[in-house]
Amino acid sequence: MTSQTDLAALLCSRLCHDMLSPVGALSNGLELLADEQDDAMRQQCIELLEQSAKISTDKLKFFRLAFGAAGGFGDNVPVEEAQQVIAALAADAKRVELNWAITEASLPKPAVKVMLNLAQIALDALVRGGTLDVGAERRDGNVEIVARATADRIAFDESIGEALQGGLPDHEISSRIAAAHMVSLLAREMGGGLQYALSDGALVLGGVLPEPEGMIG
């Protein structure tokens, strides 16, 4: 079984991989700016730096909330925080329409982590743009979560789906799959589960997590 140390290392590798491109663009932009004398080209360098800095910041905000202890030390996280980080990533991806179906003002922290990770996986599948729908609601003592990607082309490695459902052998878990494995473990620890469905033009990721004791209204 994958140890907590191994999982932490895989998640760190995933973070480094995702940050390499925007941080590398920052470095390249600074080098170009230092050597460029033409005013128009310097302005383009500055725009590149601003864009790369925004993408880097957006990714770090997502990682803090999806994997870390961001959102405070309470049991609930404001839904608005989750919406902001996903909206930023969708905007950075471009050509992605984002729709929300959440009426709750806050959700349990584990549910927010699951929702963010499912939304990120669905967003990654929209390689040529499309629509991302994210929903969550409390029902009968559970929190039900769904993230759906729809497009003419969906790029999805079904080993990620198998990891979400807890069916992937430990030796096949890589940094690319670590986030799915993490939220699968989180869901099972709470007594819930995750699942996925893939068809032509649509990827649906869902989860059901029991409300933590003492939080059911």
Structure description:
The protein is α+β, with helices and mostly antiparallel strands and 217 residues long. The protein is 51% helix and 22% strand. It has six helices and seven strands. The strands form two sheets. It has a five-stranded mixed sheet with strand order 2-4-5-7-6, covered by helices on one side. Strands 1-3 form a two-stranded antiparallel ribbon. Strand 4 (130-139) and strand 5 form a beta hairpin. The model has no long low-confidence stretch (mean pLDDT 88).
Task: Please specify the SSE layout and strand pairing.
Blueprint: H1 4-35, H2 39-66, E1 76-78, H3 79-93, E2 96-102, E3 106-108, H4 109-124, E4 130-139, E5 142-150, H5 158-164, H6 178-189, E6 193-199, E7 202-210
Parallel strand pairs: 2-4
Antiparallel strand pairs: 1-3, 4-5, 5-7, 6-7
Helix pairs in contact: 1-2, 2-3, 3-4, 4-6, 5-6
List keywords for this structure.
7 strands, 217 residues, 6 helices, globular, 51% helix, two-stranded antiparallel sheet, alpha+beta, five-stranded mixed sheet
- Which percent range describes the beta-strand content? 15-25%
Question: What topology, given as strand order, has the largest sheet?
Answer: 2-4-5-7-6
What is the overall shape? Answer: globular
The radius of gyration over CA amounts to 19 Å
Number of helical segments with 4 or more residues: 6
Q: What is the H/E string?
A: HHEHEEHEEHHEE
> The biggest beta sheet, please?
5 strands, mixed
Unreliable stretches covering 5 or more consecutive residues? none
Class computed from helices, strands and strand pairing? alpha+beta
The averaged pLDDT comes out at 88
Total strands? 7
Share of helix among residues? Answer: 40-55%
Task: State the oligomer.
Answer: single chain
**Ends: how far apart?**
36 Å
